[in-house]
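User:
Care to share a sequence and structure tokens?

Assistant:
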Amino acid sequence: MKKIVVVGGGAGGLELVTKLGHAFGKKRKADVVLIDRSQTHIWKPLLHEVATGSLDINNDGLNYRAHAAKHHYQFQLGTLMGVNPEQRTLTLDSLSDDMGHVVLPERTISYDILIMAVGSVSNDFGTPGVSDHCYFLDSHKQAERFQQALLNQFLRVHQEGTESKLKLAIVGGGATGVELSAELFHVADMLKAYGMPEMSGKRVHVQLIEAGPRILPALPDRIAALATKELIRLGVTVSQSTRVVRAYDGGFETADEKTIEADLMIWAAGVKAPDFVAKIEGFETMRSNQILVKGTLQTTSFENIYVIGDCCACKQADGSFVPPRAQSAHQMASLVFDNIKASFLSEPLKEYTYKDYGSLVNLSRYSTVGNLMGNLMGGSMFIEGRIARFVYVSLYRLHLIAIHGWFKATVIMAAQKIGKVVKPKLKLH
């Protein structure tokens, strides 16, 4: 019996392993295994809400082991160290507990078909001081670490009196930086109801720093302009064409030798695949460590290895590469599932074509803006307000349906609504 291994339980990896489990694991046609370094999954576009405490990973996260038991695949906790494509083996790092005791030694796992879905991490471009002084939001653990620091800073500012302000600096004007900027004001306002009556968005100073000429460079000008206007209305200082050259304890230094002071610093500029990917022999990789693939999403060197999501470098007909977005990971997962089924039946494989269905940016409770694209609209349609918010929420619901099925996803969504009534709206610990 063949062994199909998926490395990485992000949006694409989890959706794919769920389909594979039902198609092959349930019918005992293949062993299906998911490997991830975390026990818990959270939809990555929601990490900024975990970082502010608007979302509690303990309530809204998915446990891989429990999910595996219901969807006919196996889960292994571990961090991928390397791949040997010639021997068809993976090496997982040893696993230790909080006291440093080894729970599991270094392990080797064999595979017949491998899907690399290891996602991406922030790219600090070698900027001095960033790794030592900045918070990153690449995983829910990093987001939770920032949330604890943020809560401590709110407590400090509240105790110091009404003249004190919390200064935050966010480098990177992409979707994460923009959405986090708005969410911080929302959280500061909500703290009034939780023992901090003097706290509000007016006590928060957020500076969003973008090296390019405008924020949201991957989105249309109209969306970027409206998002900029809304952020400025909230009180965000939007610094465009501003390149950070150094981070230090207490702020950033820019290329024009100015300083930006901050109590908390977040780096959300640029992404790359994990560094170990570039060290795997036989893989063709880009400068950003992404793995080059053929149109079928197989690596250029090994037909039994597929790549999906942010770590995939898939060239389009116009010469550009598929952008690292949740919708592309979802589409790639669907195509690889079809191609694995086809390979079992000795049928020809399909070529991947990226379909851009538009983009949405959620500015917390204040606004949502974006555009939808498709044949029904004959191009692009700009949306904002409640309609845009509904579409944004629907994307998360579609993800829940993909990994749970219609019935359970509906139950989860109902439980989340009930939870908002009986539980605090903020994670306060």
Remarks:
- The mean pLDDT is 90.
- The chain has three domains: 2-120+273-345, 140-267, 358-421.
- The CA atoms of residues 81 and 276 lie 7 Å apart.
- DSSP finds eleven helices and 26 strands in the chain.
